[in-house]
Amino acid sequence: MAILDKKQILVQIIGESPSGKILELGCGNTKRIKDAIGIDSQNHDCVDIVGDVFEVLNEIPSASIDEIYSFHFLEHISDLSGLLEVVARVLKKGGRLEIVVPHFSNPYFYSDYTHRNFFGLYSMSYFSSEALFRRKVPTYGQQSQYDLVAVELVFKSSVPFYFRHGLKKIVGYLFNLNNYMREFYEENLCYIFPCYEIRYSLRRKEKWVDPDL
Q1: Residue range 4-154+197-204 in CATH 3.40.50.150
Q2: What is the pLDDT of residue 38?
């Protein structure tokens, strides 16, 4: 699909590569990060650049973006590994990647036929170097481009289930006390106390390795 750059933002990034640039991928009709450049395939009012996320990111120079945010978007992407590679390329050294996605135990996850990826406590460990968890996962030979900084399990209920929302906030506080409790929860209790979503904080490594070289 053709890219619609409403405010000629890509020209500015390519021409100047200024500091303080923030992207929000798949922002939809509500941009969560006010100062971010909103990217989405649908032409909502808050979207700054309309187009396929891969095509838009491919137009952005390497190491030109400070922070990238994504809220309930990565579960819709068919090539998750490919997207994380492109994101690593455009992030500056030490740049932040903040991701929020549904947890695999969320019962609402299966109702949406557009969801393609499942996410749990260790999902981003497959793409990063980290020392957060006792259980280690393989990287399947791919070069890690990120350091995993933090993972948070989020427990809540949607409107109008206010009472159960309050109970889940208490449960969430307990299971997020430390990483041991998070690992214990996901191995033993995730189907007893379903988790609503999961948040990952990653940092782009100081040295980016081009996977095509």
Answers
A1: yes
A2: 97
**What pTM was computed for the model?**
0.91
Show the 3-state SS of the chain.
Answer: CCCEECCCHHHHHHHHCCCCCEEEECCCCCCCCCCCEEEECCCCCCCCEECCHHHHHHCCCCCCEEEEEEECCHHHCCCHHHHHHHHHHHEEEEEEEEEEEECCCCHHHHHCCCCCCCCCCCHHHHHEECCCCCCCCCCCCCCCCEEEEEEEEECCCCCCCHHHHHHHHHHHHHHCCCHHHHHHHHHHCCCCCCCCEEEEEEEECCCCCCCCC
Q: Whats the size of the chain, residue-wise?
A: 213
Condensed to tens digits (0 to 9), the pLDDT of residues 89-125 reads 999 999 999 999 999 999 888 899 999 999 999 999 9
Which tokens hold the place of 209? 């390795």
